[in-house]
Known about the structure:
Structural class: alpha+beta
CATH superfamily of the domain at 90-269: Transferase(Phosphotransferase) domain 1
Number of helices: 29
CATH class of the domain at 90-269: Mainly Alpha
Strand order of the largest sheet: 1-2-3-5-4
CATH topology of the domain at 90-269: Transferase(Phosphotransferase), domain 1
Number of strands: 8
CATH architecture of the domain at 90-269: Orthogonal Bundle
Largest sheet: 5 strands, antiparallel
Amino acid sequence: MDDYMILDAMCPGCFGTVLFVKERTSDLEFTLKKVECLDEGRANQAYQEAHCLLNVRHPNIVTYKKLFIFWDESVSSVFLSMVMDCPYMTTLSTVISYHRQEEKKINKKVIKTFLGQMVDALAYLHKRSIAHRNLKPSNILMTKEAKFVIFDFGTASITGDRVKLQKRVKDCAKRWMAPESLTHHQMPEKSDIWSLGCVLLDMLTCHMLDAEGSISQLLRIREDQTSLDVIVLKGLHQVLSMMLDRNPKTRTSVWELVNEDLVKQCLLLCGSPLHAMKKTLPPGVHGLPFHQGFDSVLEFMQTYRDVESVQMSALSYLLSEERNVFYRVTDVVIAVTTAMQSHMDCAGVQQNGCQVLHQRLIAEQAAREVLDLDGIREVLNTLRKFPEDCDIVVPCCKCLWSVLTQRICLGVVPLKDAVEAVCVAGEAHMQDSTVMESVCAALSSLTLQGLTEDQDIEDSTLLLMHALQAHLKHSYVVKYAFLALDSLVKSSELAAFRLLLTPNGGSGLVIVKEAELQHHDNPEIVGNFCSLLSAMARYGDVIPELVAEKIPDVLEQIERQFSSNKEIAQLAKHALHSTTSVGRVNMTSST
């Protein structure tokens, strides 16, 4: 912060403070968003999430220049700072307030220009798996020429902070937030669509509602859509109904909006190329025949496989049809993999496609069909293409885990490709416990296949140790990491020696001991721990390290603690015997 001189400050927002600053070295002026974080770890996580904003270049999105973390001694807190361009523009919130006070309608052309520019901007972001997470009028700038610019992005670790949401965000401010955002069932891209719908509705009704009436309207829309009946502008009622669908699974995506006639007009008005980019349904064909049932939807999906909006809607429908998870499995898998192949650049299609495939992997008969029809190959292609998108990484890893836990060999899919893709994704999300749980689970299944390449063994072992170190208290990460390490050590001496070192160069056994200690009452984790140590003790050169870290004492304690659990007690006894017997043999040999 010492590099900047504060010129002015906006009122503190829900998730931080916006400052107008001048850089001391260049005299250039910028906007700086300062966000207080819970601790340094949360600040680093937010920094990683926001880093992608530095590469965003779009005329309707503010340009981010720099991110940095600093410690503010005056309040004893750590902050993430995001430096942006400083466009001297009024906020849309001010424009709406003016029209509300004057009881004056916002010009239709301005509204259409706004909708076109915002859909174009969100399409740009969502295609890159970036969500705004905090879209509202005060975070949208506007010029006299009706150019709108989005700024002040949120990050998952900050906007998803329950305590901060409850304490700092007033009820009236929550009116822009999607229902799932308030209940923390995050679907950020669909949440952006809800928020845009709320902003659009407020622009359309500001001349007839005061501030209190606006708040009531936007809160009431969560329960029913009757307040949309006042919208008479042709096509807008339907668009708003799609955007303000309470269920995020069936709510429209930005790509479905692009195919609406009104939105096409808006895109054309603002000069967006999107109005002509996406393939659309033929004239006279109006959306998927949901009312005709599963078979008709599936047929429609296959008929219009090149229309992205159809695939998005159909995949959302298939996800909601859990009762038909075993019905027409072959046809479903063919349709889903075709959609994924045809729309590789669409993160939404890839994410929903992986989730549908994972649903079909519940039963062995379905899993075999998914594998036989190259479903897993498509999952791996998706994982390699979108390793930084956590919403895609999780279902991809779950698909791998589901196939392999049913003892179905990957077959045509090279094991090396799968391990490499999972490891790359894991490194990209090391601080995210939910992602690392699915990554470690996938690795626990992949390692059972028997890794033979030294690089795969080394990469997997180091990733698992890093995961343990970062998530000692997360039981599922520890459980799956122990399972995977056990398989690796049993098949490779290299893994055993790699395990002795943490990614930072310390003792890996200390991390393993600490992980077991955090979950010493969990029989499953303790059992995996004992099995891992038995595998380690196979290698005589490792024994001195085990003894030095007092592993035999830990095993004796486990044997006493679980004396009534024959399985755990036996595992501990066997591990202890392996450690001490091999140790005695080595000592005798040296003598």
